[in-house]
Amino acid sequence: MQRLVVAATAFLAGMGALVVVGYLLVFSAGSDRAARAAPADTAVYMNVYLQPSSAQKTRLTGLLGKLPGFADTSTLDEKLDQLAQRLLAQGKLDYRADLRPWLGNEVAVAVRVNGTASTPEVLLLVAVKDPDAARTALPHLWEASGISFAPQAYRGHDLMVGEMASYVLLPDLLVVGQTADQVRAAIDADANAVPSLADSADFRAAMAQVPADHLASAYLDVRAMLPAGLSAQSGGYSTAAVALVAEANGFHAVGEAAFDPSKASDAAREAFGLASTPSELSGWMPADTKAEATLFGLAQSFTAASDQLKADPSQAESANALEQLRTLAALGLGINVDRDLLPLLDGEAAIAVGGSLSQPAAVLLLKPSDAAAAADSIDRLQTALVAHGATLTVERGLVIVTVIDVPNVARLAYTTEDGVVVVGVDDASVRAAVAAHRNGTTLATTDRYRAAFELAGTRAGTEVFIDVGGLIQMAGASVGLDAETRDILNQIGALAMTATAQGDHLEFHAVLTVEDAATN
Fold first, then answer.
1. Is the Cβ–Cβ distance between 500 and 276 less than 8 Å?
2. 325: burial class by Cβ within 10 Å (0-12, 13-18, 19+)?
3. CA nearest neighbour of 273 among 444, 462, 2, 435
4. Do 316 and 278 sit in the same domain of this protein?
């Protein structure tokens, strides 16, 4: 549980740094200058606008005004400047001296995946508003790395070539790559000597599906990320894009992933189709649940992935490992994975975590599509486990719970009710979930959960919910935050994500809510 709290805190701190630096340079809407220098075969592209539109600026001001110490807008710029200086100083950067004088309105990263290379090729693209100031600051910024550079002329520019990195300073863009060839490719794209990412029809089509007025965006060419030898769209997906926008009550990431059923396997199509309705399992999670994840069609996704691995000779090692797991389950526990386990996972499946730092509680919730087939699977599992040394006891009460103890492996408790299988490490967690469902005091009824998905605008298919504010408060002093940071994080509500099947695409929403001081 403590690791979850620390991870959530680190995520929020990183987002805070991004927002602060972005706000400091807010003047007008930006355009994607960096995409014109990214090669056309870029597989992953991410950019952040440091000069968002006036509408986004207004919403950012409102969100920051909810944080302690930022309510007075007359001193907001000064406070943000100080905060940016402090945050970037942790990376040994002097924001005021080394970055602010020349930093433009955009920072982007472009990643190319070469099937013959062991590591991806990464380009950093930074908009420059004052090239002379940048030319003065760059030697100091590189000083700590110990890398020396030698100039080479290329297309009228000084390409600075180093052993571990190379860069070029264009009139309005700084391009940094791991090798000189990477930077040359960017210069070629920028000079229109070769197509750039901005020229790509796939990129333009993907970005057209997300809000144009945004703070940051990301693009993914799924086909380019697939292992060599795998068919171009074996999973049915081709490209995906997501954009981050500021809303009145938090940050909202909106995205789409194109899905072509004709390019997907039967199992992949079935798994995709299941993710179109809202999950019912949050109605079984206790109200004090701090984190949950709900998935649809795990069995179908497992089958699709297994089939893909078998079809790709380069993935033979992974396919063999999967078969070995099946064999171990059969020989060690008497379990047939496909016959006994997968029928339990062909509908909804969720895990919910709550409790406290000292006594975390977790429950697994399953809602198979065929309750009768699931009951048969459970009977076979029990019989197989008992035959291999497990003990089985039935504890009665308001909820009848079966406890299975497999020596040197695990101890699990479970019950079934209304077509839902509830599994926990002890009978108490199982009873708590059933009691919450019966009483109607579940996560689904809490204000923080409902507010998060209201901001998302939808809740269907795969979902994730993390009660960030609850985790921070529960952690207390164990995270080691200073009072100012803790006060700021206490205004964070929740992180929520949902991915919904919509005909020919998967629609994605992720939100981070920011609450009014009165709420806490």
1. yes
2. exposed
3. 462
4. yes
Q: How far apart are CA 238 and CA 259, in angstroms?
A: 7
Q: Which of 190, 207, 241 is the last residue of a domain?
A: 241
- The model's pLDDT over 26-85, given as tens digits with 9 standing for 90+, comes to 333 347 999 999 999 999 999 999 888 889 988 988 888 888 877 776 776 777 778 778
Q: What is the dihedral of CA 392, 396, 398, 402, to 10 degrees?
A: 0
Rounded Cα–Cα distance for residues 4 and 266 (Å): 36
Query: Both tokens of residue 249?
Result: 């009550």
Q: Distance (Å, rounded) from C-alpha 103 to C-alpha 105?
A: 7
Between the CA atoms of 146, 151, 157 and 163, what dihedral angle is there, to the nearest 10 degrees? -50
Identity of residue 441:
T
Which range, of 206-210, 257-261, 490-494, 515-519, averages the lowest pLDDT? 515-519
Q: Residue 454 above 50 pLDDT?
A: yes
What does the H/E/C string look like for 250-285? EEEEEEEEEEEEEEECHHHHHHHHHCCCCCCHHHHC
The pLDDT, as a whole number, for residue 199 is: 97
Phi-psi region of 467 (alpha: psi -120 to 50; beta: other; left: phi over 0): beta
Domain annotation covers residue 252: no
First to last CA, the chain: 22
From residue 352, give the alpha-carbon distance in Å to each of 53, 115, 204, 228, 293. 39, 39, 39, 37, 7
Shared domain for 150 and 197, answered yes or no, is yes
Structural domains counted in the chain: 2
CA separation for the pair 445, 450 (Å, rounded): 7
User: Structural domain of residue 34, as residue ranges?
Assistant: 2-241
8 Å CB contact between 289 and 443: yes
Residue 249 lies in a domain: no
In a domain, 175, yes or no: yes
Per the listing, tokens 């403590």 go with 2
